[in-house]
Amino acid sequence: MLLDNGSSANFVTQSLCGKLGLSRRSVSSTVTGINSNSSHITQSCSLNIKSLHNDYSLTVDCLILPEITKALPSSFIDIQNIPLPMGISFADPSFNIPSAIDILVGAEVFWSVLCNNSIDLGKNQPKLYETKLGWLVSGHVARLKTPSSSPVCHFISEDSNPDLTRFWELDTVAAKRSLSPEERACEQSFLTNTVRSENGSFVVSMPLKDDPSVLGESFQMAKCRFLS
């Protein structure tokens, strides 16, 4: 589970929702994240979260997503060089091992579980924060940089109103757009070869890509099929 004080909503993956057999509700919500990327969500559920170390628990309403984010941390962290105090109960005992994120809880839960105590491990070291779920490790860590590792940012806002703009955009024809070479050739063919006859009807040439001779001797075959 990821605690994210930048999120205004809670989320759970479809996979965990299925494993827990949670009942789903229909919703219509638009979620916007980093770089204004948007996702439309149609399902939600409720689930109960409990601490590993005490009786603290809470029920949260979550929006259901196929995927929340990549595995975190993005690479393995060697805790041998981190002076972690003895007797600390971590909310996630394997916080240093990259793991899938199944649940993201937002600001409302974040501030309700955060306690007053913290431990500063020193310069270029992470800090420990006490919560009702156990101690959290956050901040600077020295780790091996790999080509696959990259920064991860979570900042999510939710709009509970349906975003009708998506549908308007589908029905909107752009005022200007660049034409492909074939489209330009078709327009030029129309302007050049379309005429109006004396009786007022339009005469339009067939816009063939190649010379009609490439069709072969198909007239007799077509005539026979028509007559039959």
TrEMBL record:
PANTHER family: GAG-LIKE PROTEIN, PHD-TYPE DOMAIN-CONTAINING PROTEIN
Protein name, as recorded: Peptidase aspartic putative domain-containing protein
